[in-house]
Amino acid sequence: MKWYLLFSVVFSSITFTLQAQQEKLPVEDFFRRPVVGQAILSPSGDMLVYEKVGSVYVGSQTVPYTDVYGVNNRFYIQHLEWLSEDVLAIQTRNKSSGKIGTMILELAYDESGVTEVRRDFIDVQGYIVDRLPNQPNAILFAQYRWNDDKVFSDVHKYPLFADKPYRFQKRSKFNANSGKIIEWVTDQGSRLRAGISYEDNKPILWSRQRESSRKMKSIWTGDEDTYFNIYGVDENNTKLWVITDYQRDKRAAVVFDLASASVTEVIYEHPERDVRSIVMAGDGQAPIAVTYLEQGRLNRYFIDPEAQRVYEVIAAQEETLNHTVFDSSADASSMIIARYGDNNPGQLLYCSKYGQACNAFESLFPWLDDVTLSNKVVFETAINDQYSIEAFLSYPAHIDLNDANSVPLIIMPHGGPIGVYDTQYLTGDVEWLVHNGYAVLRVNYRGSGGYGRDFEQQGMQQWGRAIEDDINAAVQNAFSSYAALDQDRVCLFGGSYGGYSAVMGVLREPDTYKCAVSFAGVMDLPLLFNTSSVQNNELLTEKLKEIIGDPSVQMEELKSYSPVYNAQNIQTPIMLIHGTKDRIVDVEHTWRMSHMLSMYGIEHRREIMRNSGHSFTSTDEVKQMYEWVMPFFHKHLKKPAVHRTSETAE
């Protein structure tokens, strides 16, 4: 399928040369998924498996990469896991039904490539709990089960490559506490050691009390909305490696003691950011690093000094680019590294010999390797004595930020608003807009995720209020810091909450913005509570009240911050786009807003996308949206023609 570029006007004479290059790129190129979705090392680090657009490839520094398994467009590869050096598990998910299946492949390697020896298939919903390294012909597999509205899992010792199909029956389950635990954790001896269940949005930790019994006992309950993610068990079976925000503001990597049921040690806690993950060694027996976002990019703190030394050897080979550890062998002698930068969309490297031998095995976005992507700057804006907000400005590479009024600006508030956040990583909307000559500003306003509990809490019930204050403060800071941003050519564009924010922005700051585009935007706050999915879900209703406000006691307040009830005050052209199958923000929001704008004779466009939901599932939908959006931006953001007078002509 061919796409057509939607821009037709050059913003200044300097862009004529660039436009000739840009016209070669269709919009779909900026929204295609990365070539590689997952990549992991075998336990020894000698073999590598990765998923590439629905196909699974296995190889190494000495064994040619071979396509060993693939799925059609009705499925996607959900999870890859090595069970041993030559046995690989591939979990797939049906895109329409959501059903999970697990393919097990035994492989053989030689100088010509990889061949399949035999295969097995687990046709039940579930996940692999333990690969049982000392029992190569079996694994522990947890089968998802449902009891009323509660989801739990039962663990089975599944025989690999057996002559007869294994029957998942209640009497053959490996665990006790059936009906309680959904997430099981084994120790380094492959015994069920801990588990997690959830009740009233609180995590409950279960622990094995006696070695002679499989029965678990609940030993700890977190607060509501506590984050608690277990990464492993120490060699003495007394401690867990966990990321949690229990009784703290930021998520931290900690040691949780099973005997005292408490956090006894902090491995790493960032003063301003949530810890995102623990990178475990390939054998799963020890953590080697933790990760966190800093200035919108993934950073790391090394626990294992040898892993840090190897990483530094690798990073020194290309100091101008960023490096992220995807996976590591137990001794850190082998690593999978992602290398990327502002104008480098990313490569995956397989590094062996303690970082001395690194080979790129795939580009993440090969169709963009020779394309000039956006330049980026990160800046902070103080919003009060306690907090500053982070913002990301992306702009065309040929633009000098000191060159006054040289580029129009589009503000893109992210959706959510609570817990969602923007980063510096390649984003289709941003790169497409920059490719067409715009600068794009994104703001992690209060309520955004990644900055701790309190920062998120600051955004509660601040729709149209403090959140918009933050966005406006960042915009004004950008204007004062970067002369290239043309203050007379600025529009807003967002989806979901971002669509709401775009319309509220022109309501609040009519002199700042020339236009606004809302995709699937919330226009009527009380209407959010009227959908069946909310009315039939008490927990969701209470959460929505916490985030937005309670219409039973705050109706007038909610209406005062709803665009549909303030439509008469809009002075700026807006575009409303919505899908008819949106189950999160009903298309009725856009119909109501359009009706009110029409009633008041206010300029706007309404575009309805038949059969589209709250987000896009195909590039066809992206193409359709931008066929409307780009001409709209051009109309309202084009640079006025300079009329030469007789005096200036002389």
Automatic annotation (TrEMBL):
<dbReference type="InterPro" id="IPR002470">
    <property type="entry name" value="Peptidase_S9A"/>
</dbReference>
<protein>
    <submittedName>
        <fullName>Prolyl oligopeptidase family serine peptidase</fullName>
    </submittedName>
</protein>
<dbReference type="Pfam" id="PF00326">
    <property type="entry name" value="Peptidase_S9"/>
</dbReference>
<dbReference type="InterPro" id="IPR029058">
    <property type="entry name" value="AB_hydrolase_fold"/>
</dbReference>
<keyword id="KW-0378">Hydrolase</keyword>
<dbReference type="InterPro" id="IPR001375">
    <property type="entry name" value="Peptidase_S9_cat"/>
</dbReference>
<keyword id="KW-0732">Signal</keyword>
<feature type="domain" description="Peptidase S9 prolyl oligopeptidase catalytic">
    <location>
        <begin position="429"/>
        <end position="639"/>
    </location>
</feature>
<feature type="signal peptide">
    <location>
        <begin position="1"/>
        <end position="20"/>
    </location>
</feature>
